[in-house]
Design brief:
about 400 residues; globular; mainly alpha; about 70% helix; single chain
């Protein structure tokens, strides 16, 4: 709370200046060193060929250094923007708590500003304190989540992914978006999880954090889903549901809680990524899902009956755990599933009802499930159901 966040802008400006200096050195090196091997009066012979290869590597490293410096500057500006906003939220919560008659210590502990001995008031005070403490704790956790994301991004931005100089050079592919790096890091753990690899408590906690911090961020959500693709997303949803409903949590109550939160975070990320139904990204995702949605996938839940789930069933099962679905997306999805149903009568039939108290988590009829999601927004449901062509 006492940190000078403006120092992040100062640092970003220094890194931008560094990028400019690398650009100057790159031009000079190209002209005065690399240029010796090029042009009409070029150096020739075996020694020239050997030198040219080395000079080209160094020239490329100047370019990579400039890209890395610019990316770090952008990451620092992104961090500044996030920290200023989150610090402001925390300050506002504290001020609201004080205005409501609470005292908030420097460590963030909430207590009544003054004791009162009226009948029944201790319980009332305890409830109020707990409510304000939860709000303060969340505001602090949001700052910590953002700080962890920035640390991940800064660490990844300086890793050379090009074997040009044996992995010891600058990162020419560095980007300036914190959430993109978080999505890439999360995808590594999710890929292992979808293959059935047991994740440690720390890895599960990090996945919880990254979804909690970024599920409403479009860049994060689309990067994550691009890495997985529609088929990978469906397989991951199936694996999470197998862990929750078939394998009994596979790690105890704490792990089961994490799997549930990760599945909800994945669903919320999908809702965020598909919110703009006019974007090229959405059109591409929808086209790919039309194919993935009618394919069959092996799951532990259906495997006990020697059966396989259909992609759209897995998709709607996952979507039930999310929030904030765009009405247009739900309409498109329902239209696509009805079209698939007409092309393949009986496509949703499985060797099990998957309904009732225990099996009701699975969207056996995904069209019905999508309409259920649509019903959360009565106006959207009314718009869809009032379409005469759709009701034929």
């Amino acid at each position: 709370m006492t940190a000078d966040l403006g120092s992040l802008i100062t640092a970003a400006e220094r890194w931008e200046g560094m990028a400019g200096e690398f650009a100057k050195r790159e031009r000079e090196y190209r002209r005065d060193v690399y240029g010796v091997c090029a042009g009409p009066a070029a150096w020739a012979g075996m020694s020239a060929e050997a030198a040219h290869g080395r000079f080209a590597v160094t020239l490329k490293e100047f370019e990579y250094a400039r890209a890395e410096a610019k990316a770090i500057a952008s990451l620092l500006r992104d961090a500044h923007s996030q920290f200023v906003e989150l610090k402001g939220r925390l300050t506002a919560v504290r001020q609201e708590a004080v205005a409501a008659g609470m005292r908030v210590s420097e460590r963030g502990l909430v207590a009544p500003a003054r004791e009162s001995g009226g009948a029944g008031e201790p319980e009332m005070h305890e409830s109020a304190v707990r409510s304000w403490q939860d709000r303060v704790d969340k505001a602090v956790r949001d700052v910590t989540d953002a700080d962890t994301g920035v640390r991940i991004a800064l660490a990844a931005a300086v890793v050379d992914c090009d074997p040009l100089v044996g992995g010891r050079g600058f990162n020419g592919r560095a980007t300036g978006d914190v959430e993109t790096y978080e999505a890439v890091e999360a995808e590594r753990s999710l890929a292992r999880l979808s293959r059935g690899v047991h994740l440690s408590g720390r890895e599960l906690a990090e996945l919880e954090r990254v979804f909690r911090d970024n599920a409403d961020d479009e860049a994060f959500s689309r990067t994550l889903l691009d890495d997985r693709g529609p088929r990978g997303t469906l397989r991951l949803g199936d694996e999470l549901n197998d862990l929750l409903h078939v394998r009994g949590g596979h790690g105890g109550p704490a792990a089961a809680r994490s799997y549930g939160l990760i599945e909800s975070g994945l669903a919320d990320s999908l809702a965020t990524a598909t919110r703009d139904t006019r974007s090229p990204w959405y059109r591409r995702w929808r086209a790919q899902m039309r194919h993935a949605g009618v394919e069959h996938y092996r799951t532990a839940a259906q495997g006990v009956r020697l059966d396989q789930a259909v992609g759209y069933q897995s998709l709607v099962t996952l979507m039930r755990r999310g929030h904030g679905w765009a009405p247009a997306m739900l309409e498109d999805l329902t239209d696509d599933m009805i079209s698939a149903e007409r092309r393949h009568p009986g496509i949703w039939q499985l060797k099990g009802e998957y309904a009732g108290r225990h099996d009701g988590w699975f969207a056996n009829d995904p069209v019905d499930g999508a309409l259920g999601l649509m019903s959360r927004d009565p106006a959207a449901a009314a718009h869809y159901l009032s379409s005469e062509p759709r009701m034929r």
